[in-house]
Amino acid sequence: MSADPSFQAQLVFRSGFGVLVGGMFGMGWLGWGLGTAHAFTPTIIVLFDVFGILLLGYSIYFIRKGRSLRGNYHAPSNTLTQRMKKQFLVVVVLEFTTIAILGTIAYAFHRPDLAPVLAAAVVGLHFLPLGKIFRQARYYFWGMAITLWCGVCAILFRSNSLVAWSSIGTGVLLWANCAHGLLRARGIVRSLVRQPDFSRTSKI
After folding, report:
1. Of 19, 90, 92, 121, which residue is most buried, by most CB within 10 angstroms?
2. What are the pLDDT digits (tens) for 150-163?
3. Element (H, E) at 114
4. Residue 168, CA distances (Å) to 91, 105, 196 in order
5. CA 108 → CA 11, 102, 103, distances in Å?
6. Which of 5-19, 35-49, 146-160 is predicted with the least confidence, judged by mean pLDDT?
7. How far apart are CA 175 and CA 74, in angstroms?
8. Which residues make Cβ contacts (< 8 Å) with residue 115, sequence separation at least 6?
């Protein structure tokens, strides 16, 4: 990962935004799985809500912190940022297109229970190009973990059990990826706060 303070400031912002989006999708997957398994006990509901609120709160904090840091460490050019945005949009479009195609195939073969696990596997795989685009090594780990989990579920389960376990596991792993991102963002913020802002002193 680049040690350039301006890049790291951008990374804090992107981490916060990624946790916001990933946390919501993780909540959706986990809620779907728990609902299918009829596992929403009072304890589970409390834990589900607490973790969801914590991820939401910390994501907003790091989005705001990242914006503040970007004001302190100005990037010399927006070329890299614009290229990342374009590549990200291409990956997202391909992701949703692939999910739609695989879902259609699953229903055509009268296996609607395969649609969620195939979609989750695509979600896992889409983290691999994102890891390269955003220079986030953790995306490789969690992306492969989600994909492998879906493969195991496809072998071991069928029908509602397949939907439930693949969705629960995907949601948990997405939240774990979010937590990892928050810890990384916190480390970057601490390192930036400790070092002097040379971009400003050089102008004096």
Report:
1. 19
2. 999 999 999 999 99
3. helix 114-134
4. 24, 23, 44
5. 42, 10, 9
6. 5-19
7. 31
8. 102, 103, 106, 107
Whose CA is closest to 92, among 18, 185, 4?
18
Tokens of 35: 């609902």
Beta-carbon neighbour count of residue 128 at 10 Å? Answer: 15
| pTM of the shown model | 0.89
Inter-residue contact 168 to 37 (CB < 8 Å): yes
In angstroms, the CA 77 to CA 38 distance is: 51
Closest by alpha carbon to 16, among 188, 150, 194? 188
Please answer whether residues 167 and 30 qualify as being in contact, where contact means their C-beta atoms are separated by less than 8 angstroms.
Answer: yes
Amino acid identity for residue 121 in this structure: A
104-129, pLDDT tens digit by residue? 999 999 999 999 999 999 999 999 99
DSSP 8-class letter at 76: S
pLDDT at 146: 98
* Higher-pLDDT residue of 162, 70: 162
In contact, 120 and 29? CB cutoff 8 Å: yes
Q: Which residues contact 178 (CB under 8 A, 6 or more apart)?
A: 18, 19, 22, 23, 26, 55, 59
- What's the confidence (pLDDT) of residue 167? 97
**Side chain identity at residue 87, one-letter code:** Q
